[in-house]
Amino acid sequence: MQAISNKLAERLGDAPTVVSAEYKGREDGSTMKALAWFGASDVRLIDAPVPDITEPDDVILKVTGTTICGSDLHLYHGEIIQLQKGDILGHEFMGIVDRVGSNVKNIKQGQRVVASFQIACGECSYCKQKLSSMCDRTNSSGLQNAMYGHRDAGFFGYSHFTGGFPGGQAEYVRVPKGNVNLLPIPDSVPDEKALFLSDILPTSYHAVVDVGVKPGDVVGIWGLGPIGQCAARFALMKGASRVIGIDKVPARLLFAREKSGIETIDFTEHTDVVKRIQELVPGGLDVAIDCGTFHEPKSLLHKVEKTLMLETDVSETVNEMITATRKMGSCGIIAAYAGYTNHFNIGALMEKGIRLIGHGQAPVHKYWHELLEMVESGKFDPTFVVTHRVALEEFPALYASFDKRLGGVEKVFVETKFSAPKAAGTPSLSRVEDWGTEIYAV
After folding, report:
1. What is the signed CA dihedral for 13, 16, 20, 22, rounded to 10 degrees?
2. Which family does the record claim for this protein (predicted)?
3. pTM given for the model
4. Tens digits of per-residue pLDDT, 232-251?
5. What is the rounded distance in angstroms from the CA atom of residue 364 to the CA atom of residue 201?
6. Buried (b) or exposed (e) across 115-147, using 16+ Cβ within 10 A?
């Protein structure tokens, strides 16, 4: 798939951008540790050049905190197209400003900052509305342009389909347009809280806001990874009367019940999810949100079609949401889908008057300041979802464990040699191999 997509992308050519994805290394030849993709289920820690200022709007960060995201597993399995061997991964990170380009006036050396996972130009019509994920001018993928009719902003560490920018699962990272893509963090907010302003907090909050959760609503959330767990709490904050989480991982189901007090459905026990929801909520959900994944089909039909590349994504969750939601209700998709699906229940969508909303990649800049205020005031503490802390060197084993959902993993804080000591009340440093009885061969 990668060879075909890269060949097609080469034939289509690059779309014009105002930034370059490539960076130059430092004159002294110094290197850093970084995690790179080399094939399906093959990620490796490599020595890569330490980035230097390449364009005058650049900022170079010493990474003090990074993490793994559920959507990174799509890369791990090679399901996102235009991956190339040696691509540095990671789109959630923060750090200390190491070097600043000549055009950057609002960010200073030594500041603590968090990066948005998207690279916005700050000047196009979308950026002026703070819709940073929709930026028109930073993603060079002509293939995405052809498939979607338009293209998203460039993203860090998420294949050449999103611009080919090296990511932040590394000791250093170059941030193009650093004057608009970095948020200064006050000393009162530790890294373990600030890091998640890069993605999971804006993403989960955007889903709840965009789908229109209001007081009294009964909300169903498919997928209880970090996005689903945070979305459940944000839905309750918006006044939802009930939140029902759907997943199959016992640790995640227990986590949701104990940490957030929501109801849960184990879809391995209740294989007919729609029937179970209708038993719990006669008349149906008011709102449904897909916070899950497309790479784990449940039915044999979708497993076969996906294996044979007759579809790239599966429609099972969306179909369940549509049929489990009341007439004239709303369904939102914040889970990362990439291509095409079969057997979509378009009839139920139309006949029931369902409002089906593709939330898009979350416009981080739109919510940054509001969410930082929530975190700083204690109104929302993202550390509830942080279950583990590991060193950068653990990344290959972490991917293997996270993929299998072993050891009760929800969100992991990954430290580098530049990280501060852990904040009070957060997990201590551990080794992946110590999380359970399994040994991770990587």
Report:
1. 0
2. Belongs to the zinc-containing alcohol dehydrogenase family.
3. 0.95
4. 999 999 999 999 999 999 99
5. 9
6. bbbbbbbbebebbeeebbbbbbbbbbbbbbbeb
